[in-house]
Design brief:
Blueprint (H helix, E strand, L loop, with lengths): L2 H16 L4 H6 L5 E8 L3 E2 L3 H11 L4 E4 L6 E2 L4 E8 H31 L6 E3 L9 H10 L13 E3 L1 H7 L2 H11 L6 E5 L2 H8 L5 E5 L3 H11 L4 E5 L7 H5 L5 E3 L2 H4 L6 E5 L3
Parallel strand pairs: 6-11, 7-8, 8-9, 9-10, 10-11
Antiparallel strand pairs: 1-5, 1-12, 2-4, 3-5
Helix pairs in contact: 1-3, 1-4, 3-4, 4-5, 8-9
């Protein structure tokens, strides 16, 4: 990931945590005290976000040594040392929580994505994320999805058209909403429409859309919709899909499966930082 993107995120997180000073560390640790520390996995998962964690430390000590022991996207296991650091102790302790918070969050999303991708291995559909991300961290969380083997949906409201139920209600129907959109956007912009019934799918097929979303449909009805669409456009399944129901959804023949929980309800991967006794 481009460091220009996450630099300000890390700086802001450090400002939030450190404030004016680290009262505890500065009372105990001399300014020039140096230590070695290890970041260790406490559970199995996919490692992601190492450059971001490293930047938290080097912003406080630009001479900090950060030796990576596990590659980005690598499957890691409990007890595995993923990085060894050496530098000013104040910087190690001052950046510890910010570095781990970001590393654990990003690795957790990559791990959850990997599990979901493994569930539908062998099917031709792609697993994608949503905009249900932590405010301010969307780019990092979408990077985590890619690291875990998934793909990104639109990044924001600015890079694709997604006509949802409220747009349809406000416009007076799918046909009206699509017509209004096509009058105002360029030919390079993809247009997706959300549907909840087979009747809406039929209406959407009569309009110039690129993708039809099947939202909160049972698998049986989803399969009917896929047959109705018959590869005329891409088909996305969305809404209430869990690890337990992923295979059933993939079996319907959809092209894309979007999962909001990849970013809004994921469990952080447990990692720790410990100073190594000399």
């Amino acid at each position: 990931m481009n460091s220009l993107y996450y630099e300000e995120i890390v700086k802001q997180a450090l400002r939030e945590d450190l404030g004016f000073q680290d009262l505890t560390t500065e009372a105990i640790i001399p300014e020039n005290h140096v230590s070695t520390a290890e970041i260790t996995a406490k559970e199995e998962g996919i490692l992601a976000g190492m450059d971001i964690a490293k930047r938290a430390f080097t912003l406080l000590d630009d001479q900090m040594s950060f030796e990576v022991k596990a590659k980005e996207g690598e499957h890691i296991y409990p007890g595995q040392v993923v990085a060894v650091l050496e530098g000013k102790t104040r910087a190690l302790l001052g950046a510890e929580r910010v570095a781990l918070n970001l590393l654990q969050r990003i690795s957790g999303i990559a791990t959850g994505t990997h599990k979901a991708v493994e569930c539908i291995k062998g099917f031709s559909c792609r697993l994608i994320d949503t905009r249900k991300t932590t405010p301010g961290l969307r780019g990092l969380e979408k990077y985590a999805v890619r690291t875990g083997g998934g793909y990104n949906h639109r990044f924001g409201l600015f890079d694709a058209i997604l006509i949802k139920d409220n747009h349809i209600a406000a416009a007076g129907g799918i046909t009206q909403a699509v017509s209004l959109v096509r009058e105002k956007v360029g030919h390079m912009v993809k247009v997706e429409v959300e549907t909840e019934t087979l009747a809406q799918v039929e209406e959407a097929l009569q309009t110039p859309v690129d993708i039809i979303m099947l939202d909160n449909m049972p698998a049986e009805k989803m399969k009917e919709a896929v047959q109705l669409i018959n590869r005329k456009v891409l088909v996305e399944a969305s809404g209430g899909i869990t690890l337990d129901s992923l295979v059933k959804v993939a079996e319907t023949g959809v092209d894309l499966i979007s999962l909001g929980w990849l970013t809004h309800s994921i469990k952080a991967l447990d990692l720790s930082l410990n100073i190594v006794a000399k």
